[in-house]
Design goal:
297 residues, alpha/beta, D-Maltodextrin-Binding Protein, domain 2, five-stranded mixed β-sheet, 12 helices, 18% strand
Length: 297
């Protein structure tokens, strides 16, 4: 590959930025262009069309596009998960200022109604005795877009993570509950088409290596600077973001391993919201979906 590897992301990746600042990408012989995407269907359409070489995305998206023909693009796509990246980075349900008590008729913003983050939201709303039918579900795209909508009052509820929750909190939004309450969880994986890609593999190794260093206490200044410049966080929120990355339940996955228990949580959430017989193929198909040596129990 003589051009930079094109990586599709929803929220600017602090981990990628630290990998670049620390020289990990250069040592791996990589140039990476981070390409913002507006929604998960756009992300995977761009992957199919060759506009992206790899994606940082929810593992539920990978399950949906790999195993289910009922996904938003209406076709199954052979995919490969190269590595687990994080456990949600504080993925949680938030309410706009003045809407701290969710009610029937509230506007719940999602990426798309049949995506993994939406399923997390439905499950967390159910803990407050609200069903999917009780709220008005609106598709507003990526997490930064939904955070802006919450701050601007264009929705009452949404699911946020990866630093976007701090921006909402600064505007008076309230934390209602977290995805980690639902069981073992994976929030982000590095994935691409099932065709082999040495560059994508090297990127996975570089990101996991930097994640391991951050989890072990390294790169404090680089993480804070990246969180401030890439995510627009205050100094206090950037410092909190460092602690979040190191949280073993909600933060980075220093091993890069996809664990079956977390995948079961994702499948259970999807099965509860959008039953599909093809979900029965997930457990037996993980060996081919996940890169060799990166699937654990």
């Amino acid at each position: 590959m003589n051009r930079p590897l094109r990586l599709g992301t929803f929220t600017p990746s602090v981990l990628l930025d630290v990998a670049r600042r620390s020289g990990a990408l250069e040592r791996a012989g990589l140039e990476v262009d981070e390409v913002p995407v507006a929604s998960s269907p756009e992300q995977f359409q761009s992957l199919i069309g060759g506009e992206l070489d790899a994606v940082l995305t929810s593992p539920d998206n990978v399950l949906a596009y790999h195993f289910l023909s009922s996904n938003p693009l209406g076709r199954r796509i052979p995919l490969l998960i190269e590595a687990a990246i994080d456990r949600g980075l504080g993925l949680s349900l938030w309410a706009r200022a003045g809407a701290e008590i969710p009610r029937s008729g509230a506007i719940f913003a999602v990426d798309v109604p049949t995506s993994g983050f939406a399923f997390v939201g439905y499950a967390l709303l159910a803990r407050r005795s609200l069903t999917r039918e009780d709220v008005e579900v609106v598709a507003l795209g990526s997490t930064p877009r939904r955070a802006a909508a919450l701050v601007e009052g264009r929705c009452d509820l949404t699911v946020l993570n990866a630093g976007n929750q701090y921006r909402a909190r600064a505007a008076g939004a309230s934390l209602l509950s977290e995805a980690s309450d639902l069981g073992p969880f994976l929030g982000t994986v590095l994935a691409g088409l099932a065709t082999a890609s040495p560059e994508r593999r090297r990127l996975a190794d570089a990101l996991v290596g930097v994640a391991r260093e951050i989890a072990g206490g390294g790169h404090d200044n680089a993480v804070r600077e990246a969180a401030a410049t890439r995510l627009g966080l205050s100094a206090a929120d950037a410092a909190e973001f460092v602690d979040l990355l190191r949280d073993p339940v909600r933060g980075l996955v220093p091993s890069g391993a996809v664990d079956r228990r977390s995948v079961r949580t994702l499948v259970d959430l999807r099965r509860a919201a959008e039953p599909d017989p093809a979900l029965g193929d997930v457990e037996s198909g993980l060996e081919e979906l996940v890169a060799p040596g990166h699937l654990t129990d």
